[in-house]
Design a protein that fits this description.
This protein folds into 3 domains: about 1-60, no CATH class; about 65-165, Tetrahydropterin Synthase, Chain A; about 250-300, no CATH class. The protein is about 60% helix and about 20% strand. It is built from 8 helices and 8 strands. Strands 3-2-5 form a 3-stranded antiparallel β-sheet, covered by helices on one side. A hairpin with a 5-residue loop joins β6 and β7 (about 80-90). α3 crosses α5 and α7 (about 255-275) runs parallel beside α8. The chain starts with a helix and ends with a helix. About 10% of the residues are buried.
Length: about 300
């Protein structure tokens, strides 16, 4: 009797435990009743009727990363390259993703590969390297629109590697080497030209400075000569004024002056006699003024 009572209770307990479903936060669970979609379980404890209801799919709502394998593409200028990418996507509608497509990741990879081939075929090789961000943006827009019926959202698409064929790589390296040599030659010539310009400019500045220095030297020398002549003229004027004042105050000093001038005249005469080319000096010894004038003229001639 006890066994008959205990068996139904045990069966009821087992059925009760089997009907309990715990859904974690960030997950989604689909439940079908008799083969038809019934509901999506909320996070927490849920009850599923045994034998009538069945859990058919449990998926995470977190963002996922999907690696896209390398894909051979042909650019607009007929260059063969290999491109791979990485996709960031998130499940937003579990019902659509489960009932709209059989294998979500395989369908997403094939769609991305098709879009990559389409975008790369519209660009030259150089554009695929320089416009990578533009390609990523266009792929994101197209994939987001194409996957909306699948209940997922593509949040980001990144082209990872763009690898040309070995022959193209070798040609690019040759081109880069030639370009570097060209730039080096241009820089070398520009450096030589700039050095020559600097040398010429330095020489011109040196000549200008030298000319300015010579001009200043001539001006200084002329000013010094003028000052010297001015001082000599002033000294001679002062001497003549002093001599005139002495002769005015002391009339007898005129005789002494005549004697001194006569002595100088005799000395000059001796020098004239010893000179190779003879000179004649006509002067009145009694006139000091005429003697001075004659001596001055003789000095200028000699």
């Amino acid at each position: 009797m006890n066994a008959l009572v205990f068996a139904p209770l045990l069966l009821a307990a087992l059925l009760g435990l089997r009907s309990l479903r715990i859904t974690q936060q960030g997950n989604s669970v689909l439940v079908e009743r008799l083969g038809t979609f019934n509901r999506t379980l909320a996070p927490g404890i849920n009850i599923v009727v045994p034998f009538l209801e069945k859990e058919v799919s449990r998926q995470s709502l977190k963002e996922r990363v999907l690696d896209v394998p390398p894909q051979h593409c042909i650019t607009k200028d007929n260059v063969k390259i290999s491109v791979d990418a990485v996709i960031y996507w998130q499940l937003v509608d579990h019902f659509k993703s489960y009932y709209a497509v059989l294998d979500m990741e395989a369908a997403l990879v094939n769609l991305v590969l098709t879009q990559i081939r389409s975008e790369v075929g519209l660009m030259d090789l150089d554009q695929t390297f320089s416009a990578r961000q533009a390609i990523n943006d266009r792929l994101l827009q197209e994939l987001d629109a194409a996957t909306d019926p699948w209940g997922i959202k593509v949040t980001r698409v990144e082209l990872r590697d763009i690898l040309p064929s070995p022959g193209v790589v070798e040609a690019m390296e040759t081109q880069m080497t030639a370009e570097r040599r060209k730039r080096a030659t241009i820089l070398d010539s520009e450096g030589g030209q700039e050095a020559a310009i600097n040398v010429a400019r330095g020489r011109a500045e040196a000549l200008v400075l030298e000319a300015e220095a010579q001009g200043r030297a001539v001006v200084i020398e002329a000013e010094a000569t003028a000052q010297q002549q001015k001082l000599l003229a002033e000294a001679r004027g002062q001497a003549a004024a002093t001599l005139a004042e002495v002769l005015r105050k002391h009339p007898t000093a005129a005789e002494a002056l005549r004697l001194l001038l006569a002595k100088d005249w005799m000395t000059m005469g001796e020098q004239l006699a010893q000179a190779k080319a003879g000179s004649v000096l006509m002067v009145d010894p009694q006139s000091p003024g005429s003697l001075l004038t004659a001596l001055k003229d003789l000095q200028q001639q000699s």
